[in-house]
Amino acid sequence: MAQETFLLIDGNSLSYRAFHALPLLATSRGIITNAVYGFTNMLLKILRDLKPDFVAACFDKEKITFRHEKFKAYKAQRLATPAELRAQFPLIKELLQVMCIPVLELQGYEADDLIGSLVLKAEKISLHNIILTGDQDVLQLVSLQTKALLTKKGISELEEYDAQRVKAQFGVTPDQFTDFKGLVGDPSDNVPGVPGIGAKTAAKLLNKFSSLEEIISRQAELPLKLQPKIRMFTDQARLAKDLVTIVQDVPNLIEPSECRWLGPDHSRLLAFFNRLEFKSLIRAALNQPEKEKGEQNNNSKENFLNQTLTVSYQVDYQPITQPEDLHRLCLRVCRAGRAALALSGSREKGVLQAAISFKEPNEEPKNFYLPLVIDHEVLPAPLETLKDICQNPELKILTHDGKSALWWLKYHGWEIKNLAFDTMIAGYLLNPGLSSYDLPGLALEHLNIVLPTHAKEQALVTQANAVLRLVDVLATKIKLQGQEKLFYEVEMPLVKVLTAMEMAGVTVDKQQLMLMAEELSRQIGLLTQETFVLAGEKFNLSSPKQLGQVLFEKLKLPVVKRTKTGYSTDFEVLTALAGTHPIIDKILAHRQMAKLKSTYVDGLAALINPRTGRLHTTFHQTGTATGRLSSANPNLQNIPIRMPEGRKIRRVFVPRQAGNLILTADYSQIELRVLAHLSGDESLCSAFQEKQDIHVRTAAEVFNVDLNAVKPEMRERAKAVNFGIIYGMSDFGLARGINISRQEAKQYIEYYFARHPGVKKYIENTISQAREKGYVTTLLNRRRYLPDLLSSDHNLRNLGERMAINTTIQGSAADIIKLAMVYVYDALKKRKLATQMIIQVHDELIFDVPGEEIKEVKELVRHYMVNALPLTVPLVVDLKAGSNWYEAGLIKE
Predict the structure, then answer these.
(1) Does the pTM exceed 0.85?
(2) Secondary structure element (H or E) that encloses residue 158, with its range
(3) Is 292 in the same domain as 433?
(4) Which of the residues 190, 706, 710, 891 has an alpha carbon 20 to 30 A from that of 210?
(5) Does residue 792 carry a pLDDT above 90?
């Protein structure tokens, strides 16, 4: 029988190594995790490499031990443990617990003492011991049965020490190691040895005299220059040896047999990884295909060592297709009052299968599977049952990603009447900094379960069951965070609003789009030829290498920066070179035109739905940390407006039928109004209350002139200052933005804060509270975590401060327009108007309005947008209408 292995981990040593080996990392909620992540990676690797039978992790209980009583200066030179590391020790110990590894610590002793005592116990029962640490002191424990693995650099390299390696490295045996340390001391622990005796001398002495005591007793035989050193520092050498000697009889310590390792608790381990956002570790754990039910290997340790996940969470369910069974199901679901729904389908084919989970009083959840299509044949009875359930306004439907469900059901001509809870939206509100809010991730984080994927029926039913379980958990957390109004009155109603906007789509004038493509092609061709003339040769304008050769080798323009492969010719470089040669302006113009054509003209044409002739963008409700909406395929929020050619692209967006108009409703300076409300700054509030031009008012204050003396360029600079404050712009950023000196920019900002002390105080208080809490909130209590505020990196910390201010203002503006969208949508439906809301661009809403409704819709939209969320300053909305989006931006009301 092979000798069993006992792995002993020095938890403190490895934690320190991991912390200093990696830069500070933090979760989206601000939990610092670099030490945990490094420790985890090292632990997983060593467990899979060594495959130990027994494992224990030992930690120092407190800084003060019996060694401090013997020597007050023991470890006195060490700096205090960084607060960022101290906060991670509980997480590291939690990791070990979910790995089912005993965590040992005892007051008055160090981790080394616990390891030493366990080694002695383990050797008595013939275990092979391996000590994992970064501390050389454990080399005294090395024997025929015990080896040490010492971290070399960071956490990636390990050195194995047996007795021969110790002798080769230090010139002494493991038994002599404490004598060796007695002579040379241990600077890392502030333990002094014998001054003037180094490692080589100590090794020579111990090879001749075998021990420290023998050296002391035979001082007369030492070289003359060493005799006084030993004589004067005998007590110090003995103390040093005593301090570095590991205790091997720690009382009340568990037996090695209690440390047998059977593998981790997989679901708890994955939940831990998910909570700390260790995405790569989750992917590694899930990289093996799951086994079918009945074929699973229940050996947790073997599964872990083979990197195979064992999924334990499965639910019983009943497939149901018979009309009488479906009728009974419908009655039971309606009596339950709410049901979780999981659907599988697509926009093109509708719903293909459904799963329902609900809970009757004093009963466990019941789960049912409804096949809607079999062998391409639609089953009418299950589909009709699903319709009855979804169309019942008294039945609360719970789901994940309700917008997709509404799209698929639209294929069949109906919707969910009472969409009461969307777990994706709830997960987003609780932590808006994540990159994904998929159901498996939320189930892992909040329920500590791993959802199966191998069997389609089982997977779908388990999803419905998970949604049912998640709803109560997430609802409780939303209540605790004070986000019930935001969730139930804004985000949940918004799901239907966005779905309706996506379904309505935006009509595109294909003829206008084609003409625009032709015009851009003509301009690109002209710019290309003009560039070739200025260069004196033809070359590939899209090749950075060829462009670099022309600019910096042939035309001898100054090199701004280089890349690994040659000259940099990016936008920043070309902008810096503007004015040095006429070719630069041509290249910049060429790039702008080429991007307009490829991204916005050709790109839009490719995305037009051939059936509807419209663009059906996708609005992402969970895509930003500030609460703003984003859109994709196409990104209608990113249609360029700063250059004339870009603005003209809006001409292709037209009403869906003759006689209709495009109406734009744009909040005027909403973010500055939000800043006035939040800060309570008297000057800022009075400017809006008196309906003054805020940029003219700021210019007058900053430049110390009368309002009627403000010139256009002064207003532009004041505008940059106003918006720069919102985005936390530095004097450097402001100087670059409006092309002034940094000193001037600094003065502008100082003048601004001198005239707006309320704004300055608000910014300071917001940053201070954010640093204390770890997050900021908006007007409707939307929360954003800001881990960068705790960073030791000055630049990251400044970024966190800018985000704190920007999020409270921009996020509050997002709250307001979302609320307005819900109110306007409901009002349009209530009045049974044909007007459709079709686009949202941050502070602007765009509508497709029948001509006969334009007056009523303008009044309706203005009313609900202005009164969506009353502030201490008035909200103002600019309404414009035209035959296309471009004209709607030009024709004032």
Answers:
(1) no
(2) strand 158-161
(3) no
(4) 190
(5) no
